């Protein structure tokens, strides 16, 4: 199981800015190890975010996204106290969901 | 042993089927992930694989990022569009082995404004693409130079 995500959601006016830092290797499948063998690809493929349980954003990622990915987006109508949850699924089927409260 | 060509093909098809059902082929594990778009080698191909038309450059799409990135492994980029009716925002790095970096599916509840970090193998053009609800595809581009380890580019 992967490490927890760090999620910060801050309300500003009628929207909230959400910043997510995920912990993931994001291996491209291009690199080789010291023995010259290709390291198999291992990266987050699908990301979704929900505001109070309602999905507001889905994303598909490729191996070009950097290691320990960062993502920032704005949720309209979110206010302090609302719940923002973010989940991802990688190409090995591993998944993780974390939740944060808008401040 | 057998093996006419036909039997051989039938046999390998069965094996592939078994592997797929057992979830051993990672590509088929997630049906929703657009494999074709991520395999595409150019901006136009990636957009086409996602069902868009011919991309046109537009001032209404903005791409933010550094002019020079010291470390190609972590390049902060952002894409945004103030236009209404954006369905998808795409980020692409032209000279990466996998050109398409990320697809964001925009809903009414989020703004078409995303920031993330991508890897870049070398100095290259980066594209931000907005796919509109009416089928139009608009993009912005920016060249980002990568100086690996600060040895000049």
Structure description:
The complex is a heterodimer of chains A (103) and B (153). By secondary structure, chain A is mostly beta strands. Chain A has one domain: Immunoglobulin-like. Chain A is built from no helices and 7 strands. Chain A has strands at 6-12, 15-21, 44-51, 54-61, 70-76, 83-90, 95-101. In chain A, strands 4-3-6-7 form a 4-stranded antiparallel sheet, with no helix packed on it. Chain A has a 3-stranded antiparallel sheet with strand order 1-2-5, with no helix packed on it. In chain A, a hairpin with a 2-residue loop joins strand 3 (44-51) and strand 4 (54-61). In chain A, 35% of the residues are buried. The model of chain A has no long low-confidence stretch (mean pLDDT 84). By secondary structure, chain B is α+β, with helices and mostly antiparallel strands. Chain B has 2 domains: 1-29; 34-150, Sandwich (Immunoglobulin-like), CATH 2.60.40. Helices cover 22% and strands 37% of the residues of chain B. In chain B, the strands form 2 sheets. In chain B, strands 1, 3, 5, 6, 8 and 9 form a 6-stranded mixed sheet that branches. A 3-stranded antiparallel sheet of chain B has the order 2-4-7, with no helix packed on it. In chain B, a hairpin with a 4-residue loop joins strand 8 (124-132) and strand 9 (137-146). The longest helix of chain B is centred in the N-terminal third of the chain and has 17 residues, at 5-21. Chain B is globular, with a radius of gyration of 20 Å. The model of chain B is unreliable at 21-30 and 149-153 (pLDDT under 50). Classes of the chains: A mainly beta (103), B alpha+beta (153).
């Amino acid at each position: 199981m992967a490490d927890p995500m760090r999620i910060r959601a801050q309300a500003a006016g009628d929207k909230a800015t959400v910043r997510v830092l995920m912990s993931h290797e994001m291996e491209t499948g291009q690199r080789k190890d010291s023995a010259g063998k290709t390291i198999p690809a291992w990266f987050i493929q699908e990301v979704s975010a929900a505001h109070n349980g309602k999905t507001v954003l889905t994303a598909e990622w490729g191996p070009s996204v950097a290691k320990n990915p960062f993502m920032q987006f704005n949720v309209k109508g979110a206010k302090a106290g609302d719940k923002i949850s973010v989940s991802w699924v990688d190409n090995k089927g591993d998944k993780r969901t974390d939740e944060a409260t808008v401040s | 042993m057998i093996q006419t060509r036909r039997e051989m093909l039938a046999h390998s098809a069965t094996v592939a089927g078994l592997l797929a059902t057992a979830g051993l082929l990672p590509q088929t594990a997630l049906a929703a992930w657009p494999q074709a778009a991520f395999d595409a080698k150019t901006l136009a191909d990636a957009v086409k694989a996602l069902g868009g038309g011919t991309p046109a450059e537009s001032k209404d799409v903005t791409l933010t990022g550094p002019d020079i990135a010291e470390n190609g492994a972590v390049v902060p980029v952002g894409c945004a569009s103030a236009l209404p009716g954006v369905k998808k925002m795409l980020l692409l790095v032209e000279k990466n082995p996998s050109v398409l970096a990320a697809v964001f599916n925009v809903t009414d509840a989020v703004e078409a404004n995303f920031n993330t970090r991508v890897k870049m193998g070398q100095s290259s053009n980066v594209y931000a693409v907005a796919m509109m609800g009416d089928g139009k595809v608009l993009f912005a581009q920016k060249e980002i130079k990568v100086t690996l380890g600060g040895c000049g580019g």
